[in-house]
Amino acid sequence: MRLLIEGGRLIDPASGTDDDLDLLIEEGSLNAVGPGLRAQLPAGSVVEPFDPAAHPAPDGIVALDARGCVVAPGFVDIHVHLRQPGFEYKETIESGTRAAVAGGFTSVCCMANTDPVNDNGTVAEFI
Questions:
Q1: pTM exceeding the 0.85 threshold for the entire prediction
Q2: H or E segment to which residue 55 belongs
């Protein structure tokens, strides 16, 4: 998949970036960052967003309009209450991690407030 994220506010603390920029992602890796990337790409290579359910992915670069959105590296939450095992009526590993992904988190570290407590390899491996 080739994806062009256009016009989003790129915030990257590692590089000190806070600017409206485009990103070109190819095969899961960041290929280019800068303003006006569409104009620098071969004519006809960028296609507008498509409906994957109705159409196969195009061969070109799919454009995503990110104006008004923040584009940032994945977030890490080091204080998550997944509650499973033992308290699945509050939250499960699946529901908690789905919520994390929806909020832009790529990594979570769960607390030990489970039953049995997450204080040994067997429970940690389950989680």
A1: no
A2: none
